[in-house]
User: What shape does this take?
Amino acid sequence: MIRTGSIIPAARKESITLAAEVIRKGGLVAFPTETVYGLGCDALNPEAVARVFEAKQRPSFDPLIVHIAEKTALDGLAQTISLSDQRLMERFWPGPLTLVLAKRARVPDLVTAGLPTVAVRMPAHPVAQRLIREAAVPIAAPSANPFGYVSPTCAQHVVDGLGARVDLVLDGGPCPLGVESTIASMVGSWPELLRPGSITLEEIREVVGSVVRAGVGLTTAAPGQLVRHYATRTPLTILAAHKVRSVVPLGERAGLLAMTPPRHRDNGYCTIEVLSPSGDLREAAKNLFAALRRLDAQGFDRLYAEPCDEQGLGLAIMDRLRRCSTPLT
Ligand code: AMP
Ligand code: MG
Assistant: This one.
């Protein structure tokens, strides 16, 4: 007998069979993808989708990404596929690129927050692929955490945030990439970057030429990309690049999120989390959310974060840090 909220190992075949059954019956399964853990349900079952919104306390204006395992599944979700869509899919699918396309009527309005478009992605993680195939339905899945908090990159993060609100958690170990998928809208005249992510703007430009970058805080084309998001409970301040040393006011208990090991040890921080000893952005992205959660758990007065250059993956890392650092209004 498996209890609600149980973590089961994804490596066992029976686990995937059970999880697929839960999905088909309208339940919620948290599963690993290469980006973060998703909270999945049958995308074509509006009641199941409503349970996802409820479990996450997610506002209904914030649409979900639909996950598929085969390109043929697109026919039932999107209307037409352009040449640019095809080229991006060929280059980046399966992988961390979400495409926003004109939707078909059978996609429930709740999934798309009433928009005429649907966001679709084909994850590369073998557990995600097996689950979608075995469930034999497209799986709608936002990140498996309470709305607005730091995204989960391991099974325990899911249980910490959602507990028994999830029917089952498939444990496939830590997520290899660690930041959410890149989202590109393909319904306008040019592809538009709605959210920077694991696939970089530079990589997309190589395939489709010009890409428009949506402004931070733009909420019409990208509902849900809120100015404050992915946020720790402890207030976080992004430092000026040269300020890592001794910014901590006297008496303040603070933690530092450093990109690389700081040169000075006498800097006043109670804890320092280093994202990548060698300064590798991939490693930094992979460690970002787990490090933020560890710092947040220590009850400090404030967290400080060292910035990185907004090139390649640095764009996604700085996007998440900015949203985390925006104060509650
Ligand atoms: P996540 O919460 O990480 O699963 O990301 C879902 C995000 O995808 C939402 O917050 C939206 O910003 C974006 N999204 C999903 N569907 C659409 C859509 N139809 N149009 C534009 N953005 C979308
Ligand atoms: Mg999310």
